[in-house]
Amino acid sequence: MKRKFLMLTLMPLVLSVIVSSTMAIGPQRAENNPHITAMPEGGVELVTPSGVIHEWVADTETSVIDYEHVLDASKAKIPNAKPLTLAELQEMMSDPEIALQHENKWGYMSNTVLKDFFEWLMSMGYPITPEEIALILSMYPEGVYVMFVNVGK
Questions:
Q1: pLDDT digits (tens, 9 = 90+) for 14-28
Q2: In DSSP terms, which residues pair with 63 in a beta bridge?
Q3: What's the longest Cα–Cα distance across the chain?
Q4: Rounded distance, CA 127 to CA 142, Å?
């Protein structure tokens, strides 16, 4: 009897947890959220109040990365993060096999590498201005930690 009663009372709770997590996929009225930015290359960026950045980027000719998780290096320290070079980032952005080798692993981009990376993207036609690059670099003087995920690969 107790078992039947327990099942009847817990089942709605279990169902609500499952359904609410499914319903949470995709924000409603996202254009009203000041932390969400639609990116020109077809992606969406969410900057949380703590400064953590989540980016969802559509596959293009210059990018095979679908999801990026970015942390400000002045606010977080990830000891096992591999320092990334511009050459490695260029390979990751253009070669799916190289990108998969770095998937779900933390990397560290110094401020200098970040600057070189954005300048390379700008030279590839990415819609970013030198003023925007300067603003981004001023926001992350110690660089950033990044994790790439190739969603659906």
A1: 434 443 433 344 545
A2: 60
A3: 71
A4: 24
* Contact (Cβ atoms closer than 8 angstroms) between residue 75 and residue 47: no
pLDDT at 144: 93
Q: Concatenated DSSP letters for 57-73?
A: ---BTTB---EEEEEET
Copy the structure tokens of residue 83.
Answer: 């320092």
Position 101, amino acid: Q
pTM for this model (two decimals): 0.66
Helix axes 130-139, 111-123, angle to 10 degrees: 160
Domain definitions of the chain by residue range: 34-149
Alpha carbon distance 36, 53 (integer Å): 10
Candidates 9, 22, 68; CA nearest to 43 is: 68
